[in-house]
Inverse folding.
């Protein structure tokens, strides 16, 4: 399968502190790339600079749009607009990412209005169809976000991201704010939407069990650097880097008798670039 | 009522507000005051410049239902005032003459006026028989025999509207400058910030005085009115601009704002559809709390004789008459406009408090 996104040598520092340091990777179409790492390892900065919510210092982000390869950072805002349809994002916090003053109908309709899709009636139908797709009642449309639970809000967030029929969806810790049973529901939903719509996911997470279950490939980040990348099974079964081993050893086991003994951090020889 | 979960945040805030009893009362008081001011030509029995030579510095007249014999009358009335000059002090003293009663007529004909400058009318909400023999001054009269109640109502129109117009202008300046400062950042932000600091460090009263003194004396009352309003708002916007800037700075990084940008919304849409609506409640509250400051500003300027001047009637202008202690001893009813100012300011503050509690989802009144 062909690649849909290629990132080369992406760098971003905040006040001289490198947060993303020369990161390169590629994502193949209709697969899921997991990005893991501890808090502060630069995952969010990385994906936000792909989306141009943050301007990186250097490096290129090339995206294989429906009209061929394009360098996202050399486009003017006007040229970027059609690409916004193809790349969407699902946020981490389902409470902060929905405008509290808008009804679900208005939230889901807005992307369609901005991109000039359909008339009032057809937009309404699309919203209803989308709500069904994310397994929410059609009557949800007239309600405000405060009337929903965390899991339901996250479904609204997913609906907003998918209503433009994107090809690449960036999930920035999209399930980590939810409790475990809701997490599983949302992951199932994302997986079924992927097989139905052929979506490509860029899945940022710190929960390795989720990544193992959900992703095809994985990218391990530490202090702004990619320390290891490859197919999930390979990385998880045969970690090459000390930091990956440390992360893997920190996964709690469901067996209550098994003691958690993460590797001592001090012994690690982590190369700082 | 529709289902609770379908209510908008605005409706929920209104529900919370309604449970704030003091604020509801304050809102009622303000509605009454503003209605009186809006329809002051009709509400008042006289025009503000109309003189009654038979009642100069007359004290407030009692409105009665029982006459001197203790008989009840369905139609309220006032007794005629008899003027005597105290031979020792040479002071005018008024005494009720219980042999002459003036019954109060509602919707009576009286002095003709031009309603809102639109049409001529001569009906007043209440007055006495229009044959010219009777009079009613239930707030008393001033040293020229002008009816204080009518003057307070006409003054209310100027004083209360200056608060709203001034705050409107303040809001406009504050939201515009603060909003751009917060959204654009950089040079513009620094410029606005420094300007705010300079303006806030100047003591307001001397500055107002200087600027008011610069208003040409030849200006018509209406131009002076707008001049004073502009002066008041030019220095009032700084606080609001700071708040708006702070909110914009914080909100620029909010997930739902970023989400809007990522679906391709342009700056105008982000600002007006997403950022501003989420703190309109805050702006309304700030505006409500800013109105009394405006009213007090106008009053202070007019009281000092550098704001509005007679023949314009405003509460500040009316209080100018009460500048000496003679008034307090001999004609204390001339201080009545002051009572109106106090009531208005308190009502606005209580209303603002209620609005703030209602708009703040973390207030103690929140529905569980």
């Amino acid at each position: 399968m062909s690649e849909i996104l290629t990132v080369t040598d992406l760098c971003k520092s905040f006040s001289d502190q490198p947060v993303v340091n020369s990161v390169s990777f590629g994502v193949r179409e209709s697969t899921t790339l997991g990005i893991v790492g501890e808090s502060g390892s630069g995952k969010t900065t990385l994906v936000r600079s792909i989306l141009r919510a943050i301007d990186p210092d250097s490096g290129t982000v090339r995206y294989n749009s429906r009209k061929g390869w394009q360098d996202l950072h050399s486009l003017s805002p006007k040229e970027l607009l059609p690409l916004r349809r193809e790349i969407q994002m699902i946020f981490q916090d389902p409470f902060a990412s929905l405008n509290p003053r808008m009804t679900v109908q208005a939230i889901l309709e807005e992307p369609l209005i901005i991109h000039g899709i359909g008339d009032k009636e057809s937009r309404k139908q699309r919203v209803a169809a989308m709500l069904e797709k994310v397994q929410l009642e059609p009557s949800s449309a007239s309600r405000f976000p405060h009337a929903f639970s965390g899991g339901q809000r996250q479904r609204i967030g997913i609906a907003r991201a998918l209503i433009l029929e994107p090809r690449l969806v960036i999930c920035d810790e999209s399930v980590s704010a939810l409790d475990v049973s809701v997490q599983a529901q949302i992951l199932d939903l994302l997986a079924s939407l992927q097989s139905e719509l052929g979506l490509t996911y860029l899945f940022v997470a710190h929960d390795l069990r989720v990544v193992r279950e959900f992703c095809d490939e994985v990218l391990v980040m530490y202090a702004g650097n990619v320390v290891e990348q490859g197919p999930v099974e390979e990385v998880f079964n045969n970690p090459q880097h000390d930091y990956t081993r440390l992360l893997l050893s920190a996964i709690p086991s469901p067996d209550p008798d098994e003691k958690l003994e993460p590797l001592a951090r001090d012994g690690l020889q982590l190369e700082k670039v | 009522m529709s289902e609770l979960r379908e209510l908008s945040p605005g409706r929920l805030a209104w529900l919370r507000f309604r449970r704030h009893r003091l604020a509801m009362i304050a809102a009622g008081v303000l509605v009454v005051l503003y209605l009186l001011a809006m329809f002051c030509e009709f509400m008042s029995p006289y025009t503000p410049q109309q003189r009654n030579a038979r009642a100069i510095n007359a004290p407030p007249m009692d409105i009665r239902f029982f006459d001197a014999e203790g008989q009840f009358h369905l139609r309220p009335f006032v007794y005629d005032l008899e003027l005597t000059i105290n031979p020792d002090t040479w002071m005018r003293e008024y005494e009720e003459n219980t042999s002459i009663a003036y019954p109060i007529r509602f919707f009576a004909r009286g002095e003709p006026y031009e309603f809102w400058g639109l049409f001529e009318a001569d009906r007043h909400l209440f007055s006495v028989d229009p044959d010219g023999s009777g009079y009613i001054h239930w707030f008393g009269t001033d040293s020229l025999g002008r009816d204080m109640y009518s003057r307070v109502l006409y003054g209310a129109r100027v004083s209360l509207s200056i608060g709203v117009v001034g705050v409107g202008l303040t809001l406009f300046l504050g939201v515009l400058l603060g909003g751009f400062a917060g959204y654009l950042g950089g040079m513009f932000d620094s410029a606005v910030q420094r300007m705010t600091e300079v303006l806030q460090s100047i003591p307001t009263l001397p500055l107002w005085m200087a600027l008011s003194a610069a208003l040409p004396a030849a200006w018509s009352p209406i131009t002076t009115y707008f001049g004073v309003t502009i002066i008041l708002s030019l220095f009032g916007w700084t606080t609001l601009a700071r708040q708006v800037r702070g909110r914009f700075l914080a909100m620029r990084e909010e997930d739902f704002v970023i989400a809007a940008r990522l679906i391709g919304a342009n700056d105008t849409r982000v600002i007006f559809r997403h950022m501003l609506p989420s703190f309109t409640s805050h702006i309304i509250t700030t505006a409500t709390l800013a109105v009394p400051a405006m009213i007090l500003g106008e009053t202070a300027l007019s009281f000092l004789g550098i704001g509005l001047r007679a023949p314009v009637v405003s509460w500040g202008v009316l209080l100018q008459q009460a500048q000496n202690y003679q008034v307090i001893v001999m004609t204390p009813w001339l201080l009545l406009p002051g009572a109106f100012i106090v009531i208005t300011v308190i009502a606005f503050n209580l209303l603002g408090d209620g609005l703030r509690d209602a708009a703040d989802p973390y207030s103690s009144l929140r529905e569980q």
In short: The mean pLDDT of chain A is 85.
